[in-house]
Amino acid sequence: MRGKAQKSTMGKKGVVYTLAFTLFALGLLSLAVLFSRHAALAESRHVELSFSQKVYDLDTSIQNILAEAFIGHSGMMLSSNRSLNASSMTLQENLSSDFAELDALLGRIKDGVEKDFSSVNISLEAFFSTHAVVLQPQGIVYKHRKGNSISVMPHPGIAGYEITLLFRSNITSCTAASEEEAEKERAVTLTFLGQHGGENCTFSGTGLESADITMIVGGKGVALELEEGGELMLESNATVQSAVKVLVAERNQSGYFEIPVMVEIRDPAFSFSKAGSVQIR
Amino acid sequence: MTGKKGFVLTLDFILGMTILFTVIMVALLFVSRGSATTMAEHQLLRFGSDIVAVMDEQKLFDSLSHETIEQELQELLPGQYDMLIRLQGNFTVGNGTLEVGGDIPREGLLISGKRVALTGNSTYLLITYLMWGKAQ
Q1: Cβ–Cβ contacts within 10 Å for residue A13, how many?
Q2: What residues of chain B, 67 to 96, have a C-beta less than 8 Å from chain A?
Q3: Which of B:5-24 have CB within 8 Å of A?
Q4: Does the beta-carbon distance from B31 to A43 stay under 8 Å?
């Protein structure tokens, strides 16, 4: 009796032991399977990482050459300044502006890049229509209307302008008129200087709704209009070196410039798509 | 009887442990080999990308000179790697293709990448770079 009981107990112990050991082994085997799956996942992530690196390199290099082309052939000088009291972005150029060389170069770059990289598409139409420069991060648009005319679209972020025009001919006439803006939030400041040698045509005003400055330079008309919302239009039939400094209301961000040249990269294999404008820094 | 049972039990346990650890070791081997391979690939890609970016920033490709590019490449390249840079574009040197660097090995890990650049006289360049580890 006692022997049978002992055998029964030992048998139960053996079963328990075997079950426990089996469960333990299954647990460790699951761990091994997890390791293998992790290895496959990690490899997949590394493939995606390498793909991301290649796309980043390609996008950065395309943006760089488009920006270089603009800086080297637009005839424009762009700068931004940020101080405790105010932020401003300055665009300098000679009017009448000629973008034929720049347009041709951008066209060649577009053809070359799209031929070498089937996943890349560059859109130039928006830039060719107005040769605009966008002041970011506010989104203020500075564009060329004709060869001798520029305009800044109305924008709530515009606090004012400082405009300097250097002429090659004599200033024979200078008239200015302005209207004040009752609402403080919509008012802009304007500081204007038209100069040839010792001859000056100046205007300065704060809290403005609109202003009109008209000059005759070397027998040719020059007109500057400030409209509601900070809209600016400058048309000069005389050759002039212009510097338009846009004072922006937002003071705690560094400004940069963009041109509306869209670079789009698509890769269906990775379901990847990226599109962006070209930054000029 | 008890002694025989214990002996069998111990053998059983040792056999089980051996199989188990073999499976775990094989799994760990797959993990480490996979990670090492892909990390090495990515590191090569980053090295190559950085080297070409530095050379582009320094306007070294503007010269389209084999000697100038080769000299700078040897200065920037880490000792354990070798690299080939291929420039293609509308220029007369080499009939529009210029290759600078080492000979592509027939076997072993090889990483490639592409960038574009613009020379000082507005010539569009397609830059292809290949990078590999030197045989020890």
Answers
A1: 10
A2: 89
A3: 5, 9, 13, 16, 20, 23-24
A4: no
pLDDT of residue B32: 65
Residue range A111-165, pLDDT digits in tens: 999 999 999 999 999 999 999 999 998 899 999 987 789 999 999 889 999 999 9
Q: Is B36 on the interface with A (CB under 8 A)?
A: no
**Which tens digits make up the pLDDT trace of B85-126?**
999 998 888 889 999 998 888 888 888 999 999 998 899 999
* Interface TM-score (ipTM) > 0.90: no
Q: For residue B118, with 0-12 CB atoms within 10 Å meaning exposed, 13-18 middle and 19 or more buried, which class applies?
A: buried
Query: How many angstroms separate the CA of residue B106 from the nearest CA in chain A?
Result: 23
Distance CA A248, CA A267 (A): 39
Torsion sign over Cα A124, A125, A126, A128 = positive
- Please name the residue that has the structure tokens 């039939």: A237
